[in-house]
Amino acid sequence: MNTVLRTENLNKFFYDPIEFKVLKNIEFEVKKGEFLSMIGKSGSGKSTLLYILSTMDNDYSGSLFIDNELVTGLSKDKMAEIRNEKIGFVFQFHYLLSEFSCLQNVMIPALKLGRLSVKDIEAKAYEKLEILGLKDQALKPASKLSGGQQQRVAIARALINDPIIIMGDEPTGNLDSNNTRLVFDMFQHLTRSYGQTIISVTHDDDFAKKSDRIIEMKDGEIVKY
Amino acid sequence: MNLSSSIAKTYIFSNKKLTAVAVLGVLLGMSVYIFMNSLLVGFDKSSNASIFRNTSHIRVYKDDEMSKSLNQDSFSLSLIINPKVVPTNNTILNPNMILATILKQKDVVAATPQVNTNVFYNKGRLQISGFAIGIKPDEANTMYNIKSFMVEGDFNVLKSNPNAIVIGSGISQKMNLSIGDYLNLTSSKGINRSFKVIGIFKTNNSVTDKTKSYINLAASQQLLKEGNSYITDINVNVRDPEHANKVAQELTKITGYKAEGWKEANETLMATNKMRKMIITFVSLTILLVAGFGIYNILNMTVSQKINDIAILKAIGFKGKDVIYVFVKQAIFIGIVGVIGGVMMATILITILKRVYLGGDIGYFPIDYEPLKFMQGIIIGLVITFFAGYIPAKKAANVDPVAIFRK
Q1: For residue range A65-82, what is the model confidence (pLDDT) as tens digits?
Q2: To which CATH superfamily is domain A33-60+74-224 assigned?
Q3: Which strand (E) or helix (H) includes residue B46?
Q4: Do residue B317 and residue A84 have CB atoms under 8 angstroms apart?
């Protein structure tokens, strides 16, 4: 199987309020189609690691490869392009643009990518919303939906560009068990059917156990691989 | 429509009140800027117009000379002298040749001789001092547009009647003179002569109206017991009054007589104009700047409110410059709407004020639509709104999404 993400000797320091090494020599690989969970206590560095993997945090030493391409050291604009094309994000909070309809929210990353016509993007957004059971809510403003629905819209937005990696920062953290199960099944479906890779930070042990692989972190190091 | 524009649009229309306040700020700033500057131009034009009713652009005359010591030799005896004005004639020698020379200058559009005569106007026992100006009627009219401020009589009669006089409205009131009446003038040389009133003018400057009168050049020369080559002044008009001082300097060199530009002759007025210009420019620019601060404030607030949106937009692939576009486009939208509103508002204000009658020397409110000032206002307004938007936009572009997501 192909490697979609790889790190070499990642180190990161926090300097405020005192110098502190958050990540120590992180080296791991993620294969295509894997459903990976990262667990660990608060402060273990798992979120920090995820944001480095997401290319949004550039302040580290070591190397990061996404899709066999060295990302470390690229310009911020170039990284923004990579995020747009290859990575989808789901956070604990949905981060939808409240003034826009669900459909528009889902369409924004694809419009930014600009590879398809607006009509095709719209069709595709409807398709993604349908997969998540939200087709009938498409034209409502994002702020009018329930928490579970909003999170599903956010997932649809993460999927619109068919990214090779979907990154989640406690994607089910705010959801009830019913919605959590729904999101989990969705993720699993994506890895099985479309070969998309999922890297998710979670506190939910059940969620983690059901995933393909668990990386446990402690004090900035990977303890279980 | 491209993505950043449509996001900008959504932000603008989702918070209509804030947008309206920002637009109103620009609108008021713009309209006041254009209005005040148009007013400034109007003031300048009206004050110049009232100057040019009495004064030509350049006046060429023989300046008084001080007596000098005859003895320039330092070896001879010292002589105590009392320097004073040499009592020579203040006439311009060979005026026709000098007039021809002046007219040959490329910037000069008109030149006419004039004789200034101090006189007493007598009627019965009533006596008023003033000055009668000897002119060539046609040439003087083209220069001062005397016909435009005539209130009674026909100025053209002055050409055909050597004993005609056109008097100021103040003189006619005081002496109870109307068209066809005779008026006796006594000159400084003791000459008495009767003139027939054929016209009355009114400049709305009461001093001028109470003292000034126009007579034929020949009549004024007779009043001074002089021949027909006696000319005290040559008045010159140039193409662009703003350059009068420069042309005056050249004329001084060429003719050897003192040539004085109108700005030099009206220095107090010029200083007042300058001060007015400075104050109005400063105030109107400040108002525009304050409007810019309004936009800055509102966009800054939007950036703070939408910081989550900015973070997620950056996460899904918006570059720094895309975020800048989103906010600068909002500023430009506010700017353009404000500027259009401001231009309309200024046009309305000017239209209303143009119809306000002030009376006196000024008449109607001296304001007009000044295309240059409109252009200036539009450009400055747009530049200010652009920068007022760019600074918060830059701040938005520098938002670190990780810091937001980790909160």
Answers
A1: 999 889 998 999 999 999
A2: P-loop containing nucleotide triphosphate hydrolases (3.40.50.300)
A3: helix B16-52
A4: yes
